[in-house]
């Protein structure tokens, strides 16, 4: 299955959180994983937040950031999709940052996997609902 993973999923590969095991299951080689390069900065920001709040030590946050490119992900710049991304954000009334992932999933005919329940609820009532699944959805097991 061709999947686009967002930062809410990928950060679970680095720091133990709720559903980290489900996120780890995506790394088993059964799926073709994609992400926009934007995710590198979003994960780095999440590590910064966790370091500031003492969820992890500063040195650990820095060390983890050195391994971001080690994940088996096809990194996509997705710049050609900026007009599509802005259109999605305006249509959904949701920030561009999350819509970058949705635009990529639609462009590569894949499915976006997220742990962001708020974004999932926004998309669920739209024509884009079949382009997104929540982490842990049984469809990811098949």
Descriptive terms for the model:
single chain; 142 residues; alpha/beta; Rossmann fold; 5 strands; globular
Short summary:
By secondary structure, this protein is an alpha/beta fold. The protein contains seven helices and five strands.
Set out the fold topology.
Layout lengths: L1 E4 L1 H8 L5 H6 L6 E5 L1 H15 L5 H8 L7 E4 L5 H11 L3 H12 L3 E4 L2 H8 L7 E3 L8
Parallel strand pairs: 1-2, 1-4, 2-3, 4-5
Description:
- By secondary structure, the protein is an alpha/beta fold.
- Helix 7 links the parallel strand 4 and strand 5.
- The chain has a five-stranded parallel beta sheet, with helices on both faces.
- 48% of the residues lie in helices and 14% in strands.
- It has one domain: Rossmann fold, CATH 3.40.50.
- It has seven helices and five strands.
- The radius of gyration is 15 Å and the shape is globular.
Shape: globular
How many strands?
A: 5
- Content of β-strand: 5-15%
CATH class: Alpha Beta
Question: Share of helix among residues?
Answer: 40-55%
CATH topology: Rossmann fold
CATH homology superfamily name: 5'-nuclease
Count of helical regions: 7
Quickly count the domains: 1
Mean pLDDT: 95
